[in-house]
TrEMBL record, chain A:
<feature type="transmembrane region" description="Helical">
    <location>
        <begin position="106"/>
        <end position="128"/>
    </location>
</feature>
<keyword id="KW-0812">Transmembrane</keyword>
<dbReference type="InterPro" id="IPR035906">
    <property type="entry name" value="MetI-like_sf"/>
</dbReference>
<feature type="transmembrane region" description="Helical">
    <location>
        <begin position="237"/>
        <end position="258"/>
    </location>
</feature>
<dbReference type="GO" id="GO:0005886">
    <property type="term" value="C:plasma membrane"/>
</dbReference>
<comment type="similarity">
    <text>Belongs to the binding-protein-dependent transport system permease family. MalFG subfamily.</text>
</comment>
<feature type="transmembrane region" description="Helical">
    <location>
        <begin position="73"/>
        <end position="94"/>
    </location>
</feature>
<dbReference type="InterPro" id="IPR050901">
    <property type="entry name" value="BP-dep_ABC_trans_perm"/>
</dbReference>
<dbReference type="GO" id="GO:0055085">
    <property type="term" value="P:transmembrane transport"/>
</dbReference>
UniProtKB/TrEMBL annotation, chain C:
<dbReference type="InterPro" id="IPR027417">
    <property type="entry name" value="P-loop_NTPase"/>
</dbReference>
<dbReference type="InterPro" id="IPR047641">
    <property type="entry name" value="ABC_transpr_MalK/UgpC-like"/>
</dbReference>
<keyword id="KW-0762">Sugar transport</keyword>
<dbReference type="GO" id="GO:0055052">
    <property type="term" value="C:ATP-binding cassette (ABC) transporter complex, substrate-binding subunit-containing"/>
</dbReference>
<dbReference type="GO" id="GO:0005524">
    <property type="term" value="F:ATP binding"/>
</dbReference>
<dbReference type="GO" id="GO:0016887">
    <property type="term" value="F:ATP hydrolysis activity"/>
</dbReference>
<dbReference type="Pfam" id="PF17912">
    <property type="entry name" value="OB_MalK"/>
</dbReference>
<dbReference type="InterPro" id="IPR040582">
    <property type="entry name" value="OB_MalK-like"/>
</dbReference>
<dbReference type="InterPro" id="IPR012340">
    <property type="entry name" value="NA-bd_OB-fold"/>
</dbReference>
Length: 273, 295, 374
């Protein structure tokens, strides 16, 4: 290795890591602040302090943090399971029993994603009010199911398409019914794909903030809405905000790191592998 | 001939029945609210004035289209979408090239750099508002202080820019994630062949890398467009659309009309306009995806 | 007893006619090979028989019963796929026993049948492995084993050897022939490789463009191709074709003028061939002989020496001919050579590409593979 090339490599590493640190800094700072006291949090920024779990304890103690967290889990997992339940048969038929209409149907599903939620906020709000679904987990779960259904179907479709058709045909020759085909072959064989589809759906629901802010107020509010309540001036407790936020994003951040590769395929409708 | 007909229909029916739940639900989800929005937009309908109902004709639209708030919010929407797209696509491409190089701790650096995408929007907005951009206690203010510069009150001096920074911080990592993945499928032989042909790093970027990323970039633009057109939470928790209307985009304007002013008719008319705008964009986008589906 | 009849089977996808009215009889315990270039419809035909595709029209009859509307699993057939289509998440044993499991057979019954198939295919040591841990040839055997376990009335093979390397292919070919004998079952085999067809079939069905070109035993197809397509497709290297002109046609054969002007009398029925008609003469490379007195002359362009044999590629005007010569010929590239052939070995094709029938049938043309066994 000659000198110029070594210099270049070191320079590259420094550049890349500087940018990485800049991008990651707000998250790092938030996590750090969560371990400070309120007084330290608003003091002049410093890396050196005695870490304390005070804020975590306090966040968990007051404000029903767990109620919000439970709402988030309920709504995102529930909507994901529902979307998978509806999406798997649809994606199966699109991937393995394609008709002339299949492509059109897929594109139409995608186009429903392009309908801006604000455009239908008013009617959904009113329907929910009349059906008593406002501020209920059921209502929000339902919205998230439909919100993610197109992406779930698309993503499953791209994963199913990768499964050699022969294998399903062989099972048909072996006497498998459609249900057996799906349960004994399709699902076990595409489990990683189904799992990453599910995780993406959980992530999208977990982080969703438009419907949760507009359709819930207290009893069904998930973490997005809870965190948003810190925006009011009287809610300015930075350490507690940071601690609550850290807890709110930690699971999703880890999910995201784990599934980033498959997620790209799903998010780009299979166009980027 | 009988066989042919029955064979076809049975297969078609099976495929139809499997898709039915998904298609029906989405159809209802799309058509019912859409129809209602359209209907309300022609009604005089304010939740605060129950007695004032009735057909309004184009009154809501006339009111809305002559309202400077609409035009300013559309402008805000365009600036927001345009600048975030530009920042994330250009920045994402450059960073993808950088993170594709071999350097110490590359794997960890990549994971850290894409992290902001997974942060819920309310959290990232609040972190930026309170801990980064806060005029007295924020990190940026402290940083300015190191150089003896005055602290900037970001949200009152540069409200829209602040929002753009926050949203870009969330979406640039997304572009990076997609483009980096696309980059990994770039054929090494192709790069080496280009090098044999005497191409330098810059030439390789423009003639090999960029064309290879074209499809990924178009997908990034499409997805971001879908989400950016309806940015809401970031505005909701930071500026609430202000000061004045400085950071009110179309989504936020409709929210104000509907849930703060209870003007269902007016909000619906705004919704219809948002849908029309989105559809204009969608026509191009769907066509783009359809083309991607071909290969 | 398992016989299969196809009656006027057609298949269309939208406006494309893939199968254009195929009639075929498959007898009990016969090894039938569908062969043809890619896109000829041979795989589609097999999939129609399997029940994976439905015929657009026509009847499919097994043992006298019309089975068009019977599901694939209930036709009593088993199929071996080109890609093997093994279930990657199941062990070899589970792969082979899957159909029995679906049919609700007990664990013991399954085990017995799987063990029996494993014995035939020498798969016993591999039963606990997953397909990933098997070599190509082993996977192939598992796929066959999965078919055997079902004890089908007819085995279907869809290009089963095309994913194997050359050496393994030869070995599997022998093994399949042995299996056919041992199981004594009816088999239908699809391939694009005419060597597989020639070596394994009792009956070859040559397909092109969704139509049957010729059905017959390997030797019949080799010695009496009914048209130019079959003549060119069967046999390797390919048959040579020369433009010739009819001089005379009578009961003793057809006399033609070869390129270069020499006459040649081919012992075929004249039909309505008249003097002056343009015909094509087909002669296989192995039937061309170097001969200083031969009627044909050309220049050697390429020589491929295989040791025992030497292929000479000879140009004669615009035509490129292949000649299989002895391994010891000492000719060099660009040598001018004379060569000829026995007229009885030659074929004549009319303007439509149809063969003029030989006056005498080749003595092996009726040979069935079973006949080798005596």
């Amino acid at each position: 290795m000659n000198n110029a090339s070594t210099q270049r490599r070191v320079g590259l590493a420094i550049l890349a890591w500087t940018i990485t640190c800049l991008i990651f800094f707000p998250i790092f700072w938030m996590i750090l602040t969560g371990f400070k006291t309120e007084a330290q949090a608003v003091a002049s920024p410093t890396l050196f302090f005695t870490p304390t779990l005070e804020s975590y304890v306090e966040v968990q103690g007051r404000a029903d943090y767990f109620k919000f967290a439970w709402n988030s889990v309920y709504v995102s997992v529930g909507s994901t399971l529902l979307a998978l339940l509806i999406g798997i048969p649809a994606a199966y038929s699109m991937a393995f029993l394609p008709t002339k209409r299949t492509k059109g149907t897929l594109l139409w599903m995608l186009s429903t994603k392009m309908l801006p939620p604000v455009g239908v906020l008013v009617p959904i709000y009113l329907i929910f009010r009349d059906l008593g679904l406002l501020d209920t987990r059921t209502g929000l779960t339902f919205v998230y199911t439909l919100m993610n259904l197109p992406i779930v179907v698309w993503m499953l479709y791209t994963f199913f398409k990768d499964l050699p058709k022969d294998i399903l045909e062989a099972s048909r020759m072996d006497g498998a019914s459609t249900l057996q085909e799906v349960l004994l072959l399709l699902i076990p064989l595409t489990l990683p794909g189904i799992a990453s589809t599910g995780l993406l759906s959980v992530i999208l629901s977990w982080n969703e903030a438009f419907w949760s802010l507009n359709l819930t107020s207290s009893s069904a509010a998930p973490l997005t809405a809870y965190i948003a309540s810190f925006s009011s001036p009287e809610g300015l407790f930075w350490a507690k905000l940071s601690a609550a936020s850290t807890m709110a994003i930690a699971p999703i951040l880890i999910f995201g790191w784990l599934t980033q590769k498959q997620m790209v395929r799903g998010l780009t409708f299979g166009a980027v592998k | 001939m009988a066989t042919r007909a029955s064979g076809r229909t049975v297969g078609g029916l099976r495929s139809l029945s499997l898709q039915a739940p998904a298609v029906t639900l989405l159809l209802i989800w799309m058509l019912v609210p859409l129809g209602m929005t359209l209907w309300f937009s022609f009604q005089r309908y304010n939740l605060l004035m129950p007695g004032m109902g009735g057909f309004a004709g184009l009154e809501n639209y006339r009111y809305l289209l002559t309202d400077p708030a609409l035009w300013s919010s559309m402008g805000t929407t365009l600036i927001l979408v345009g600048s975030v797209l530009a920042i994330s696509v250009i920045g994402g491409t450059l960073l993808a090239v950088l993170y594709q190089q071999d350097f110490f701790g590359r794997g960890v650096a990549r994971v850290l750099a894409i992290s902001p995408f997974f942060i819920m929007p309310t959290v990232s907005a609040l972190v930026w508002k309170n801990m980064m951009m806060h005029p007295s206690n924020g990190v940026l203010a402290w940083f300015n202080g190191l150089f003896g510069l005055p602290a900037i009150d970001w949200f009152s001096s540069y409200p829209l820019l602040s929002i753009i920074i926050i949203v870009s911080w969330q979406w640039l990592p997304f572009a990076l994630l997609i483009l980096l993945t696309a980059m990994q499928s770039l054929d090494d032989d192709q790069v080496e062949a280009a090098r044999m042909d005497g191409a330098g790093p810059v030439a390789i970027f423009f003639f090999i890398t960029l064309p290879h990323l074209k499809r990924a970039i178009s997908v990034v633009i499409m997805i971001q467009m879908i989400f950016l057109l309806t940015i809401f939470a970031e505005i909701f928790v930071t500026t609430s659309g202000g000061p004045g209307l400085a950071t009110t985009n179309l989504a936020y304007l409709i929210y104000i009309r509907a849930l703060l002013e209870f003007d269902v008719g007016g909000a619906s008319a705004g919704g219809v306009i948002a849908i029309i705008l989105a559809n204009i964009v969608a026509i191009f986008l769907v066509r783009m995806v359809a083309k991607n589906l071909e290969d | 007893m398992s016989t299969l009849q196809l009656k006027q089977i057609t298949k269309s996808f939208d406006d494309t006619h893939v199968i254009k009215g195929v009639d075929l009889e498959v007898n009990d315990r016969e090894f039938v090979v569908f062969v043809g270039p890619s896109g000829c419809g041979k795989s589609t035909l097999l999939r129609i028989i399997a029940g994976l595709e439905s015929a657009s029209s026509g009847d499919l009859v097994i043992d006298g019963k019309r089975i068009n509307d019977v599901g694939p699993a209930d036709r009593g057939l088993a199929m071996v796929f080109q890609s093997y289509a093994l279930y990657p998440h199941m062990t070899v044993e589970d792969n082979m026993g899957f159909s029995l499991r679906l049919a609700g057979e007990s664990k013991e019954a399954r085990r017995t049948k799987v063990m029996e198939a494993a014995r035939i295919l020498q798969l016993e040591p591999l039963l606990d492995r997953k397909p990933k841990a098997l070599s190509g040839g082993q996977r192939q055997r598992v796929a066959i084993g999965r078919a055997i376990v079902r004890n089908p009335s007819i085995f279907l093979f869809d290009e089963p050897l095309s994913n194997l390397d050359a050496a393994l292919r030869v070995q599997m070919r022998i093994e399949l022939a042995r299996l056919h004998e041992e199981l004594d079952a009816t088999m239908i085999y699809v391939t694009h490789d005419q060597i597989e067809a020639m070596t394994m079939a009792d009956k070859i069905v040559v397909l092109q463009g969704g139509e049957v070109e010729q059905v017959g035993s390997p030797m019949e197809l080799y010695h009496h191709p009914c048209n130019r397509f079959v003549a060119g497709f069967i046999g390797s290297p390919k048959m040579n074709f020369l433009p010739v002109e009819t001089v005379n046609a009578d009961a003793d054969g057809v006399e033609v003028t070869l390129p270069g002007g020499r006459p040649c009398r081919v012992p075929v029925t004249a039909g309505d061939t008249r003097p002056g008609a343009a015909l094509e003469l087909g002669i296989r490379p192995e039937h061309l002989m170097l001969d200083d007195e031969g009627p044909l002359e050309g220049e050697i362009q390429v020589i491929e020496r295989l040791g025992g044999q030497t292929s000479l590629y000879i140009t004669m005007g615009e035509t490129l001919l292949t000649l299989m010569a002895d391994g010891d010929v000492s000719h060099r590239v660009h040598d001018k050579v004379r060569f000829g052939f026995e007229p009885g070995r030659a074929h004549l094709f009319d303007a439509e590409g149809l063969a003029l029938t030989s006056l005498e049938r080749h003595h092996l043309a009726g040979l069935k593979r079973q006949d080798h066994r005596g």
